## 1
Amino acid sequence: MKQLLKLLFLALICFTACSSDNKQPLVSSPDGSIRVHVGIEEGKLYYSVDKNDKVILNKSLLGFVLKDSELNKNFKITNIEESSFSDTWTQSWGEETTVDNKYNQLKVDMEESAGLKRKLSVVFRVFDDGVGFRYEFPEQENLKDFIIMDELTEFALADNHKAWSIPYDTEYYEGLYKAAPANELDTVCTPLTMETKDGLYLTIHEANLTDYAAMNLMPENNTSVLKTYLSPWSTGEKVFMKAPGVTPWRTIIIANKPGDLILSRLMLNLNEPCEIEDTSWIKPGRYIGIWWGMHMEKYTWYQGPKHGATTENTIRYIDFAAKHGFSGVLVEGWNDGWQNDWTKEGDKFSFTKAYSDFDLEKITKYAAMKNVRLVGHHETGGSTVNYENQLDSAFSLYQRYGVNAVKTGYVSPLLDGKEMHSSQYAVRHYRKVIETAAKYHIMIDNHEPVMPTGLQRTWPNLMTQEGLRGQEYDAWSQDGGNPPEHTTIIPFTRGLAGPMDFTPGTFNFSNPVFPNTRVQTTIAKQLALSVVIYSPLQMASDMIENYENRPEFEFITSCPANWAKTVVPDAKIGEYVTIARKDRDSENWFIGSITNAEKRNLSLPLTFLDNGAKYKAKIFKDGKDADYKTNPYRVEIEELDVTSDTVLKLELATSGGTAIMILKQ
Ligand code: NOJ
């Protein structure tokens, strides 16, 4: 029935058979502002994009180099098909409850005019907030199993925009996003976010990466023409492909302001609808963990005198979680196999054998009594073969004990000693883990992943992922920790790829192991990050003893992890960002505002609140003279009555923040 209704929305506007190369297909967004032109010149296929008559992408090449031939020339258009689609779908969790999916589509079918006469199609979907397109390889005699050596897709930028990126070879994507003119970029990962001189914001990324290699970009000969570079297999091939088959969608968000990048749902819309019929077992929530203690070297992962994952310690954490309303307790180092260098010997890990001082049965029974769940942990040390061999038994063990979320990890520069985390090899593995976990009703928090591309729409048990430089760098990074601007950039770069398990919420900034490394924020900014950084499984990172007797902890324990609505009242990439989110289960709003190393005053009109309604605001703000270097702990808590007419004055300290809860009366 659902499918039938969807089909009703699909209105086929026109269907034109055409064999002329001169025909210039064109498709516009529903509001008419964005246009994509497609054309063939001397047998090669090109597209270009404009918005309100301003060029976004100049003529950009499409096509492939295959192992045994080229698939990028002698094309003629054989058919053009236009259609429109409009639908609204509901997310079981997310930054809002419903998502509008409205676009105009153009499908261009081509065929080589000589030789093997192979067929290739490109499908463009143009939304009001950007463009997605993908290649389709139809079933055909002369193209069955084939190997892609190079995808030639270009993004010929109209200018050398300011671009925020991390280099392609950044280990686990855990880098600091730097701004540079687009033509000076190295090979970089996507999402690649840019600001144009005309004040537009563009993000290039991809959607629905399921059996392909991740896309990276590199400027062609120091120009602003960005070319695709797919992450290779160790043997040099990029993608093993079959026809019929499709590539991931290549996406370009085009926004008038930075906040609109965050509100774009183009990537999710370009993923397939949910595959899981009953999603009632998928539950967003907040968790704590026996975790920061390991990073601060108070505990060890392996069994010994400083072992963190003991039954006694876990029960202490469960009691704390129950008292403060956390839904989960992550415990790392519970299982056999942690040794000195587990990043090289991941195949020693057992995912079913607990250390003798960790009583899984006793712990999970106790947790159930307290209405808390253990969050499981599978660190693979990059050995996917060892993990896949145990996958079913590992998930079924956890399911038997009521563990409904597992954090996975792949710490090792290469998977199985040879393949990149962004290769087709890795993509296939991660996908298998998500689908297997769903069979056992287990949610996944994937660390050291491939860059996310919106698969959570199809598999909403894929809750959150790392693939970014998280708070753990404030424990041991040799460069001193995450600089103040980092969290004012990631919502507009990595954050556009999906939820981030950044793990904010550290309350004790002293670092006995690396005294020159520490959290470079104020406490109020740590609170605000719970809202600014979106993750449906949101961690409070610190050891529980550091939360005792801290009144500001109330913000973390009150802040939901699932939202009905998100708005971005104000932002400037790399400088500051304010995000307001409405709770999925109440009429309350939560706001986070953060700044870089500059202190600043912002004004925040609460126009997003219901007109005429009364609210009580509880504001957690940087205290007098707060400063992230000299006085980071000073926080003030203030209460006041507000309405949608109220304009709050926010005073953010250097690397400071304000966190606000607004409760409807
Ligand atoms: C790296 C992860 O990011 C971190 O959260 C985890 O504690 C370690 N790997 C061990 O699995």
## 2
Amino acid sequence: MKYGLSQKFSDIYNKEAESAYFSPGRINLIGEHIDYNGGLVMPCAITFGTYLLIAVNQDGVFRFRSSNFNEAPDIPLQSNYQKIGDGWFNFPLGVIDHFLKDGHELHGLDMLYFGDIPIGAGLSSSASIEVVTAFALNELFNTGYSKLDLVKIAKSVENNFIGMNCGIMDQFAVAFGEKDKAIVLNCDTLDYELVNSNIKNYVLAVINTNKSRKLVESKYNERVEECQTALTALKQELDINYLCDIDTATFKQYKHLITNEVVRKRAKHVIEENDRVKLAANALANNNLAEFGKLMYASHDSLRDLYEVSGKELDTVVAYAKTNSVVVGARMTGAGFGGCAIALVKQEEFENFSLELSTYYTNKIGYAPSIYSSLIGNGVGIYNEYSVVGGRL
Ligand code: GLA
């Protein structure tokens, strides 16, 4: 297999893996900090992700191994678990805990994980590991969950076991993504549409700022609370469940209800960003990449100035992109506070773009970014030995 994982599994466990699964990471084209406000988002699954090789054991032990991390705990099967420190294995452990609490009878498991998504870079490495684990458990123990159930389980693990009050976008995208399609997801109803990404002749550049993201969880949860405060204020006169239940025009009429200026700025971002997603979906459908690109830049500006989740590293990438005519649009993607930006770049100019951006960024920031060209790939599934990369596991 890719990365010699089959061999690694048998070296560790002295047996062959029973099965292998893959779940991608995701980028979000537009619609940031919208999912927990009940609006529209437009993510895509990418071809980087998390592989899981797995076999049931009769020893009543969950053995967690990863090619990315040294921590390798053996945790005995019991009726439930709490988060143990900050180790990577808490994401799969939380999923196991959820299945057990739902009353499913599990056996011990020998597991080997490997991720080729840059970890903690805003590409949903955590949703990817949660969803691949939930998918595998559902298959191995015939628990009969639908894909949407697995998405909800993974989100609940993130909220209740890990303690990050995220919305549903990441888990949904890594489960439901499809090759060359963007997902237009309504995060309130969970209705979704797969639309052609229509980026022929352009590549999706993913630029990792390599800025370590500190305080992501606490800052993120702070933004979620600010949105709640804004909603409570608007509800004095409006009958709504989410900030995204109103549009920009209505917001203008009622924004005075939000007395705290910072909270008002947060709400303004959310409501205008939701409107931008609608425009972006139309632009994509009409093959109007120039308009789509403008909306990406506007989204970034708003995340920088109103929502205040960008930072000088992400801003440097986007500022450079604006000066280069081979780029149609760029913005931070994911939670922010460092992590990754995306840019739509003319295919034949990608190499030049990477070199120039790398030099510009390194001069300004003092270290280099990592730049990938990413394809839009499929959601979670069984990883066939001869599929995906055309080689043995
Ligand atoms: C993180 C969260 C998502 C979403 C984005 C911001 O990725 O996990 O639920 O809120 O941030 O759009």
